[in-house]
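Researcher: Let's do a round of design. I'm pasting the structure tokens now; please hold your answer until I've finished.
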């Protein structure tokens, strides 16, 4: 893969926010669902996603900037003799497993090294300890299969409640996906090992979640907004009215003397935050006065509200 910074079009000094913003812009532009007539879009989309996967991981990004791994996440350092503690092997990266050995000799190692070749060189096998190519040539790990991208359209109510979603994979198998807390439109969820098969194992499935709009709800951060019309008599006398929520309808109490614009709060009826707590549902009352009701006009005839409702305007 080419330089991930170049793929995302950001400088090496870019902040996490800049990297995320660049990725979201490119992902929307290159998504295969929007580029059915452009065969190269899927490949570009995969490259953008792979670049973001590397740069959004603080540890991987730091190691890439130091030259310890390449753009594909593979170790880049040479592997040779000497320099390690206790006469061990040096020059590879700590923490990778090689044929059952981890952190061999206290030094560092790189993925895919054949320790059998090294031991044969030490103990009279091919290569020996003399000159020539040496026994520590690094082998690149076998590549995993390609990642597969999916778009999952989730109804507004189900996104708010984090209702389990069933995803049908390319091989026809289904998997029940649990929506993460803090879910936002366009968020991606990675399903490890659910992509295409390759010599080094399976790639991943990357699911982009699209939250469908609601005919009456709106989202404001973790809160859900709803406007509810009430009649004049309900506003004056008070009432219990049936309103929708993400989980289903509930009865809400309207206090006597309620006015248009009054906001009522239903605790814990919004979207789930990353910490597991839920936002609220904010209900704005709208008093709906009939435009041509003879009975209402007759009842109000001769009555006048004596309050100066606009006194604060000083006009």
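Researcher: That's everything. Go ahead.
Model: Designed sequence:
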């Amino acid at each position: 893969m080419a330089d991930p910074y170049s793929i995302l079009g950001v400088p090496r000094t870019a902040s996490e926010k800049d990297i995320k913003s660049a990725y979201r812009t490119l992902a929307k532009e290159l998504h295969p669902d929007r580029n059915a007539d452009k065969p190269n879009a899927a490949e570009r989309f995969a490259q953008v996603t792979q670049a973001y996967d590397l740069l959004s991981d603080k540890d991987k990004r730091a190691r890439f900037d130091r030259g310890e791994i390449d753009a594909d996440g593979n170790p880049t350092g040479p592997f040779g003799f000497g320099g390690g503690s206790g006469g061990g092997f040096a020059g590879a990266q700590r923490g990778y497993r090689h044929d059952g050995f981890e952190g061999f000799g206290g030094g560092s190692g790189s993925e895919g090294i054949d320790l059998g070749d090294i031991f044969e060189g030490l103990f009279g096998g091919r290569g020996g300890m003399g000159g020539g190519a040496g026994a520590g040539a690094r082998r690149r790990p076998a590549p995993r299969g390609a990642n597969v991208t999916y778009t999952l359209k989730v109804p507004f109510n189900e996104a708010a409640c984090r209702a389990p979603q069933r995803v049908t994979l390319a091989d026809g198998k289904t998997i029940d996906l649990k929506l993460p807390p803090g879910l936002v439109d366009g968020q991606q969820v990675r399903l490890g090992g659910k992509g295409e098969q390759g010599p080094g194992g399976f790639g991943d499935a990357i699911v982009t979640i699209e939250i469908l709009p609601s005919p009456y709800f709106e989202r404001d951060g973790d809160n859900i907004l709803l406007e509810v019309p009430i009649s004049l008599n309900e506003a004056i006398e008070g009432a219990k009215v049936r309103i929708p929520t993400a989980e289903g309808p509930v009865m809400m109490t309207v206090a006597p003397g309620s006015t248009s614009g009054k906001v009522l709060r239903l605790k814990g009826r919004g979207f789930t935050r990353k910490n597991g707590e839920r936002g609220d549902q904010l209900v704005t009352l709208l008093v709906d006065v009939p435009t041509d009701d003879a009975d209402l006009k007759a009842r109000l005839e001769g009555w006048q509200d004596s309050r100066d409702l606009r006194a604060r305007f000083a006009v």
